[in-house]
Amino acid sequence: MKASSLAAFVTLTMFSGGLGGGLSSAGCSSSDSPDSHATPDAGNTNDHAPALTSTGEVVAGKTGTLFGAQIASFARVAKVDGNEVVHSVGVIVPLAAFTSAPASHPYQDDVVLEMPDIAVEQTIVHHLRANWLPSGHGPTPYGEAHFDLHFLRGTIDAIDSIQCRANKSKPAADKLPEGYGPPELCVDGSGDHSWPLADKAAGAKFSASLIMGYWAGNVVFIEPMITKSRLMQKQTFEMAIPKPASAGGERTLYPTHMTARFDEANESYTFEFDQLEPID
């Protein structure tokens, strides 16, 4: 499918029923190779945003492919004192992307998707890297099959270049939100991972958790980690996003809430980050 046709296709499927509408799994990706980043080319940017909604104008971002299903990024933008300000940012993922995940699969970036430019300029959410782990990973209780949805701050090249052995700096206390301990795991290409302390308690159960990510001591990602079984329930759910006193780097907007909204008519989830607050 040509880029111009794809953009028109996304416009129709994404917004015909409002933002909650899903994307068709038809269409094409920039790469069908599981070992490559499914990063769309510039022609897959949708420049035709719909009219104003109750929470502002919807700005469409890029599209990519996750296990044969087309996903898309977006932002909601509202006018504040004459200026465009991001109200929320997120992605739309068809249920087929989750149901089609293979039973056996290596750890890798299964899709890399950039957010709209205005979200990159104003918020800490710059791009998504999704990872499917059919056997889960440590520590307990994360052994169930689940998806890691890393929403990262930084360019794709900058995150790709992260090598854990190159920088052993850990976040200071003001970078750790309440209920989180020092990072215990570093992964090349993403950074240091800090788990909720509650998940480490004896008998803790896991269906959806929010992981905090760091590199060189600064916040570099927010990661909803969600079991496949939870997603197969086809129900809307919400997650609070803990906010540290500081993220490091330039002042930006930080989401404190995420809704995973299931659209029954379109068989899709919209993962939307909102309740944005300034952070240094």
Automatic annotation (TrEMBL):
Q: Where is the composition biased (Polar residues)?
A: 42-52
Signal sequence annotation: none
Region: Disordered, residue numbers: 26-52
Q: Residue ranges of the TTHB210-like domain? A: 81-132
Q: Which InterPro entries match?
A: TTHB210-like_dom (IPR040832)
Protein name stated in the entry? TTHB210-like domain-containing protein
Q: Which organism is it from?
A: Labilithrix luteola
